[in-house]
Design goal:
alpha/beta, Histidine-containing Protein, Chain: A, 4-stranded mixed beta sheet
């Protein structure tokens, strides 16, 4: 009896161990997947120091030429002008950057051309012209007649230019339509033989281009903008139509050019030019 019971238990045990799974019967939970090992990012090394910002280099300064170098450069520049070579006999000397042009020329226009050319040489701080006009002594009546003919051309249409001459000294009075016309009238008169001095009292009948602040802004635009800006540093103020220019430029002729540009703005009555010439400043 006991043996039969043991055999029955053994048979039942084997049956349940090998029978197929029955639908609806819960399966044994699958084994939990093995966790992948955690990857640890390598710790960053020490932060490299930031590169220092490049130092701002001061503008390069040019050496200032000695007086002897200035004289040699001015003579070379004047000799390249064929009109001066043919009609003028000029001398040049320089002391601490102040250039003196002596000698003689046929017309006042040639002396002014010599001044402009000399002022384009680096190192020249100012130009003093002591040269004489060789055609001095031409009768005033002849000078007056040539001046009236010179101004009776289409270039001066609409302008009213009066001329008076006394011992070769010419005075221009009247009204012109622009500052450029005023400069042109003086240049035309300076080319007449016998004229030794010109007092240009022509008034410009132009419309003001704004209030004082706007006039200062327009002057500054002319100096620093456009196709041919003037190199240098500028401070421009205008009060009651009177412009004050401060700062520096590298060449003497640029100082004169800045003054002409300031006068070309409608509404500017006077220009106080306090620009200095700094020959150590490079030019473009």
């Amino acid at each position: 009896m006991t043996r039969s019971l043991s055999l029955s238990i053994l048979v039942l045990t084997l049956f349940f161990a090998h029978r197929p799974a029955i639908a609806g019967e819960p399966d044994s939970p699958p084994p939990a997947p093995e966790e992948a090992p955690t990857q640890t990012a390598p710790s960053p090394g020490p932060t490299p120091p930031e590169a220092p910002a490049p130092a701002v280099q001061p503008p390069t300064k040019l050496p200032i030429p000695a007086d002897e170098e200035i004289v040699a450069s001015v003579k070379e520049t004047l000799e390249k002008d064929s009109d001066l070579t043919a009609n003028a006999d000029l001398t040049v000397r320089c002391e601490v950057g102040i250039l003196t042009v002596g000698g003689k020329a046929r017309t006042l226009a040639q002396l002014r051309q010599a001044e402009r050319l000399a002022g384009s040489v680096r190192g020249v701080l100012d130009v003093v012209v002591t040269a004489a006009v060789t055609t001095r002594g031409v009768p005033d009546s002849q000078i007056l007649m040539e001046a009236q003919q010179a101004f009776d051309i289409p270039s001066f249409a609409g302008d009213r230019i009066g001329v008076a001459v006394s011992e070769g000294r010419m005075r221009l009075d009247g009204i012109v339509t622009s500052y450029a016309r005023k400069l042109l009238a003086e240049k035309t008169a300076s080319g007449i033989e016998g004229v030794t001095l010109i007092l240009n009292s022509l008034r410009v009948a132009s419309v003001s281009e704004g209030n004082d602040e706007e006039l200062a802004h327009r002057i500054l635009l002319l100096l620093t903008g456009g196709l041919t800006p003037i190199p240098g540093e500028f401070d421009v103020t205008v009060k009651n139509g009177r412009a004050l220019l401060k700062g520096h430029v590298p060449l003497y002729y640029l100082r004169q050019q800045a003054q002409r540009l300031a006068f070309s703005v409608g509404g500017v009555k006077e220009v106080d030019n306090r620009l200095t010439v700094d020959p150590s400043t490079p030019t473009p």
